[in-house]
Amino acid sequence: MTPKLSRYATRLPSSPVREILSVSQQPGMISFAGGLPDASVMPTLPVSDSYANVMQYGTSDGEGILKQNLVKWLASEGFECSAEYVMITSGSQQGLDLVSRLLVDEGSEVIVEDPTYLAMLQLLKGLGAKLLPINLGENGVDLESLEQQLKNSQARMIYLIPTFQNPTGYCYTEAERIAVAELIDRYQVTLVEDDPYRVLNFDGVFTRPICHYLKTATWVYLGSFSKMLWPGLRTGFMVAHPALFPWLMRSKQAADLHSNRLGQAIIAEYLQQGLLADHVAKLQAHYKEKRDYMQTLLKTHLPATVRWRLPSGGMFFWLELDQDTRQVLVKGIESGVVVLPGTAFAVEKSADHTLRLSFSQMKPADMEEGIKRLAKVLAQLQA
Predict the structure, then answer these.
(1) pLDDT of 184-199, one tens digit each?
(2) What dotted CATH number matches 49-276?
(3) I need a surface site. Which of 11, 57, 221, 230 has the fewest CB within 10 A?
């Protein structure tokens, strides 16, 4: 019997990353496709007798002690907020799901960067949103394109990743953040700001959230502990404008009642002990070394026709090639190297000649061998 599915189910695309990751598990394969944190720099997972009090159901918005410590940390990062409007989520991906379901009906217009985060594309397409792209290129966000989309649409929501964007690695300047905030206030659209990579800041660039600059528009700010602590705990957070928070609380209650209390307790204790600042400094030094090494390898082994911009943070390089990168994927797998074509992140403009390469989990020897294999693939395709 064929099940009778909802329109959401029939529109919902599969995740290219998840499909490619299965190929990455083959023996001898070197993969640049995923964006997984490096387990070698994760803190030791603590064990404590105090965790016994998390066995019962908890509150939908999260543990108070975690929210209070999170608010202190966000303030140190330049974003003042109240614990009253903080919600702990099951990873920041759940936050994206909750806010999208709250704001998007079938046919609703949503403004997004092009390219953008593929899992958000998966979600919005499943909901039947009409995507309105704004170009994000080497010179940053196209403010003229953004204003035209705002002026000529009835967009309910704008989704941005302004800090070490996935997939391009671009980080908005302070001037861009202020200009974007002014446009959002002028046209009164809800900003959903996705900010999972902010702690991976290698060059000390400006990262204050755009939400900080909004005066009248509603907003939701999303973050994650996955990139700085333990991704397996699936603990993220959402800070919301007071007008939106009660509705998000209802959405959370309907989704899963509350997030993992044990994970919240472990992270809260880590924050309360004041360990995060030193750990973040360690992460930044560790990943910066990997970024710099990949930069050296790319310069050494790839042809001069390949173009990229050195990311100032995050986990990814975004490469532009002369070859169709869907062919590079196929030939790469045959040669023992897995890459992720940019087509997975494309909204409207072509990304057929782009690649996202992750350096976060790579060991130096594997990174070098993988880049050499990629270089050979590109040479074969050019021949």
Answers:
(1) 999 999 999 999 999 9
(2) 3.40.640.10
(3) 57
